[in-house]
Write a structure and sequence with these properties.
The longest helix has 25 residues. The protein starts with 6 loop residues before the first helix and ends with a strand. It contains seven helices and 58 strands. With about 950 residues, the chain is mainly beta. The strands form 15 sheets. Strands 12, 13, 14, 15, 16 and 20 form a six-stranded mixed sheet that branches. The protein has five domains: about 30 residues, no CATH class; about 325 residues, Neuraminidase; about 80 residues, Immunoglobulin-like; about 210 residues, Cytochrome Bc1 Complex, Chain D, domain 2, CATH 1.10.760.10; about 140 residues, Galactose-binding domain-like (Jelly Rolls). A hairpin with a 2-residue loop joins strand 10 and strand 11. The radius of gyration is 31 Å and the shape is globular. Keywords: Electron transport, Heme, Iron, Metal-binding, Transport. Pfam families: CBM_6, Cytochrom_C, GSDH, PKD_4. This is Transcriptional regulator, Crp/Fnr family. InterPro entries: 6-blade_b-propeller_TolB-like, CBM6, Cyt_c-like_dom, Cyt_c-like_dom_sf, Cyt_c_ID, Glc/Sorbosone_DH, Ig-like_fold, PKD/Chitinase_dom.
């Protein structure tokens, strides 16, 4: 092609080679082929902010701003460009339940939802859904948001939903707009959790809050529904055509779009089809029973209005049985072809809409046979968006590739995965796959696409009813060209008494572009609360904190193209984290074996505060609680009960500080002295952050003129943190006592089954201490717990499985198929376990041939702890219900073969595997069905 005989040809060749070389150095971008799955490493997680106080829902504003709300009333804006977080206002909301006995505990309600109007740039409207601070109702209100100001005078109340505040739980609160400007609002059932984790069908007088037939199954009640309304400019709303009940239909509410929900969560609208999608949190029963099916969480789709079954059906329209609580008798299964609501608490139609729409995706605590990819463990379906490329501007920088077109991205609060769900041309379920399978998204309470095309995940954090340092907003960017670094920051110590040295680490940080490998730049910025900063270079520097205070260490990693990503850690200097230990007298910490009392001792030590042993930490400053936990339990409800005891323990620190100060020389608790009583102060001032700050200033600096002529002396010797604790105690004097009273640091607890329970639950012993801080450094907490369960475990609760066939009709059958099939239970304390017994069914009807069972430690091939004899027959019996006077559990055990094996001595917590053996079995032959596994300490 070229000749080197001329100067011109030489330079022509050089120009060609230069152009070729430059072209080959350009970043190669993947083609947007909808059939090609993008590389996982083209998605980058960016943490935008951390350490929020119970974030609930987010919405997007122009100019890269995110508006989100927190349960206790906080309305905040995050500016992505600057990283600045602004508290816009605090909405007064209710956050407590008060039961008929007057006991108070944390509520699931508060400020629950937020969304910006589709035309926000023109009208500046945002909608908030919250629990009224005074009246028992939930409120949907519209405000104008001007800059960072929520204009109070602009408030318009669109909708009010009467509720009850005696019993937990379920509020909903998710919102979404469709293309026509209709607003969808999810509303929870506002009903007590049934103690057995099944359906809510209690019609007895005085138990109305335990009957979901009065709300989700009631066509004339807005609870347990998804509403569809059209907000009007004047602050009212109209009813769009096509809702479930036409306007004017007797005994119905026209706002209802779908009904029959327990706790519908985050909704989304497919902009192309108009279909509605949401996550739904189900009940907690872990096994099928005479009540009906076990609990399922659901991800649901509505192609139009309809009835989704609760409280009569769940999952794939599995029916519950009718139950007469007065006589404790069970009736027939509810008829999915003819659903009727005959409850005395029903104010709506008797005949409910048909057809009953089954769940789109449903899954239990255990392994799902229909959707095995979802795994097994705790469950709480959140929801997520449907991706449509047309929803984003052509220049949106992070728009997902065409592979995800029309797919529904769903996130799970408890399990931490995101699934990509594919539908066929009719919108019916087709398949699912993990999105970013190597990542987890802890406690994701909301997820949506932003205007820039990135996927945003709002993470609540690990502990209920409190602010969490690991709550955060995570942004997932798709990078078709250069990829940002993936940053991971850690430290070997996050808190300590000064001076303390911490070793930072960037281990786990990487970049998937080859040209960046080994060429990343690492920079650490350690900022204190006063604004000063220290810069450190390199991936793994050390730093010694000499001054007390709160710090944030931010690792920024920059690649060769100048693209950077960051991750942050919060550190506290001047305060060591307390250590809490429950000494359980050497007993097993997994199982309760029927002891009438259980001895315990709580030991608390803290470098600054001292210890419980020397009396520096007083017993009433430690929350020690003991609860019966039903077989089907709601962890949120347990947390709400215990949080009251925790709060009282923290407040008692303030009382003890008052007792040790000179304050009592002028003030008494309930009577006036030289100064006003503490009760009078609590009555006079509303318990707000502003009033607490004002009173702290008066205590430290002195004051006069409010309660008479006598001036209050200044107390400059007291630290601001100690005075804040004292004022917090005073301001909370009007709070009623918590549901669960704190126990002493040592003693015994009576393991009694509460009236009305079946005894198949367990017990939770928990100790919690929040230290006093040090100077003005914040408090830190420590906790320990012992969770005891019934020693009879249902195999449906197992984790790792091979060769398991689970059938649910006509009754539950957990069958082992073929030689060497197995299942396991995770995290079992084997201390003191002497024997394991199996309750097995061996039915001729399915051709079961029997088996022996090996018990192994931590894997299917782990240490052999014991092996049963081979069993080939089970006691004769039949029928679907036990004889009169015998429980289902007793009857099932009587009809089981019961091989057992002694267990080699093992201590500590392990995964326990059960391998079922019969070398004569065909690969698909049933060996046995497993009813229960019993762990014995004798």
């Amino acid at each position: 092609m070229f000749s080197l005989n001329t100067r011109e040809s030489y330079f022509t060749l050089m120009a060609f080679l230069l152009i070729f070389a430059l072209g080959s150095c350009k970043e190669s971008k993947p083609t947007d082929d909808p059939t090609v799955k993008p590389e996982e490493n083209r998605f980058t997680k960016v943490v935008l902010t951390e350490g929020m106080d119970e974030p609930m829902e987010m919405t997007f504003l122009p100019n890269s701003r995110i508006l989100f709300v927190e349960r206790k009333g906080g309305v905040k804006i995050l500016d992505e460009k600057t990283g600045e977080l602004t508290l816009v206002t605090t909405i007064p909301v209710n956050t407590k339940y008060t039961n008929k006995e007057g006991a108070v505990r944390e509520a699931e309600e508060g400020l629950m939802g937020v969304i910006a109007h589709p035309d926000f740039e023109q009208n500046h409207w945002v909608y908030l859904y919250y629990a009224d601070p005074v009246d028992t109702k939930h409120v949907l209100a519209r405000y104008e948001l001007q800059g960072n100001e929520l204009v109070e005078s602009s408030k318009k109340i669109l909708l009010e939903i009467p509720t009850q505040r005696e019993e937990c739980c379920h509020t909903g609160g998710g919102m979404a707009f469709d293309q026509e400007g209709n607003l969808f609002l999810t509303v929870g059932n506002n009903t007590a959790n049934p103690r057995l984790g099944t359906s809510n069908l209690d019609e007895r007088p005085g138990h109305e809050n335990a009957d979901d037939q009065r709300a989700p199954g009631n066509t004339n009640d807005l609870r347990g529904k998804i509403l569809r309304i059209h907000p009007e400019d004047d602050g009212t709303y109209s009813i769009p055509e096509g809702n479930l009940f036409p306007v004017g239909t007797e005994k119905t509410r026209p706002e209802i779009y779908t009904m029959g929900h327990r706790n519908p969560w985050r909704p989304t609208i497919d902009s192309e089809t108009g279909y509605l999608y949401w996550g739904e949190v189900g009940p907690d029963a872990s096994i099928d029973s005479i009540w009906g099916p076990r609990g399922y969480d659901e991800f649901n789709q509505a192609k139009g209005p309809g009835f989704f079954g609760w409280p009569y059906f769940i999952g794939n329209n599995y029916p519950y049985t009718s139950h007469d609580y007065e006589t404790e008798t069970f009736g027939e299964f509810y008829d999915v072809n003819n659903p009727v609501n005959e409850s005395v608490n029903n104010t709506g139609l008797r005949e409910l809409p048909t057809p009953v729409i089954p769940a789109f995706i449903w899954y239990p605590y255990g392994v799902s046979e229909e959707f095995p990819l979802v795994g097994s463990s705790g469950r709480s379906a959140t929801g997520g968006p449907v991706f449509r490329k047309a929803d984003f501007a052509p220049d949106a920088p992070f728009t997902f590739p065409a592979y995800y077109e029309g797919k529904w991205l769903i996130v799970e609060f408890m399990r931490g995965w995101i699934m990509s769900v594919s539908m066929d041309e009719n919108g019916d379920y087709q398949s699912m796959e993990r999105f970013l399978p190597n990542d987890t998204f802890s406690s994701a309470i909301d997820m949506d696409f932003g205007p820039d095309g990135a996927l945003y995940v709002l993470e609540y954090g690990s502990a209920w009813f409190r602010g969490n340092s690991n709550s955060r907003i995570v942004k997932i960017e798709y990078n078709a060209g250069n990829r940002k670094p993936n940053v991971h920051a850690s430290a070997d110590k996050l808190a300590g008494a000064i001076p303390f040295t911490t070793n930072f680490s960037a281990e786990g940080t990487n970049d998937f572009d080859d040209y960046d490998e080994g060429n990343l730049k690492y920079s650490w910025a350690i900022k204190s609360s006063d604004g000063s900063a220290v810069e450190l270079e390199g991936p793994n520097p050390s730093y010694t904190f000499e001054n007390a205070g709160e710090y944030q260490a931010t690792l920024t990693v920059t690649d060769t193209k100048g693209e950077s990503n960051s991750a942050s850690l919060d550190l506290i200097a001047g305060n060591e984290e307390p250590v809490v230990i429950i000494d359980f007298d050497g007993k097993n910490r997994t199982f309760y074996f029927g002891e009438s009392s259980l001895n315990y001792q709580v030991q608390v030590s803290d470098k600054e505060d001292g210890s419980s042993a020397d009396g520096s930490i007083k017993a009433n400053e430690v929350a020690v609680t003991f609860d019966y936990v039903p077989a089907g339990f709601d962890p949120i409800e347990i947390a709400s009960k215990q949080s009251g005891a925790e709060s009282m323990a923290v407040l008692t620190i303030g009382k003890n500080l008052i007792e040790s100060s000179d304050c009592k020389s002028c003030h008494q608790y309930d009577k006036a002295s030289i100064g006003p009583s503490y009760q009078a102060v609590a009555d006079k001032y509303e318990n707000t952050a502003e009033n607490v700050k004002m009173l702290v200033g008066k205590v430290i600096n002195g004051g006069s003129g409010v309660w008479g002529d006598h001036a209050m002396s200044a107390h400059p010797q007291l630290s601001e943190s100690d005075v804040t604790r004292m004022v917090d105690y005073i301001m909370n004097m009007n709070e009623l006592k918590p549901t669960v009273e704190s126990l002493p640091l040592a003693g015994s607890v009576n393991a009694e089954v509460p009236e009305g329970e079946d005894g198949e639950g367990g017990y939770l012993l928990r100790a919690f201490y929040t230290d006093k801080g040090s100077g003005n450094t914040p408090s830190l907490t420590g906790e320990d717990y012992v969770a005891l369960r019934n020693p009879f475990l249902d195999p449906q609760l197992s984790a790792d499985r091979k060769g398991v066939q689970l059938l649910t009709t006509p009754r539950v059958s957990f069958s082992m198929i073929g030689d060497q099939s197995y299942f396991s239970f995770k995290d079992i304390d084997m201390t003191g376990i002497k024997e394991i017994m199996f309750y097995l069914g061996i039915s001729d009807r399915v051709g079961a041939i029997g088996a022996s069972v090996e018990v192994r430690l931590d894997s299917p091939t782990g240490e052999l702890l014991g092996e049963t004899e081979k069993v080939t027959k089970a006691p004769a019996g039949g029928g679907f219900r036990p004889p009169e006077g015998m429980t289902m559990t007793e009857w099932r055990r009587q009809l089981s073969a019961t091989p057992s094996t002694k267990i080699s001595e093992v201590s500590g917590t392990h995964d326990i595997y059960f391998i079922f053996k019969n070398s004569e079995a065909a690969p698909d032959q049933v060996l046995v069905s497993v009813n229960e596994v019993e762990f014995k300490n004798k």
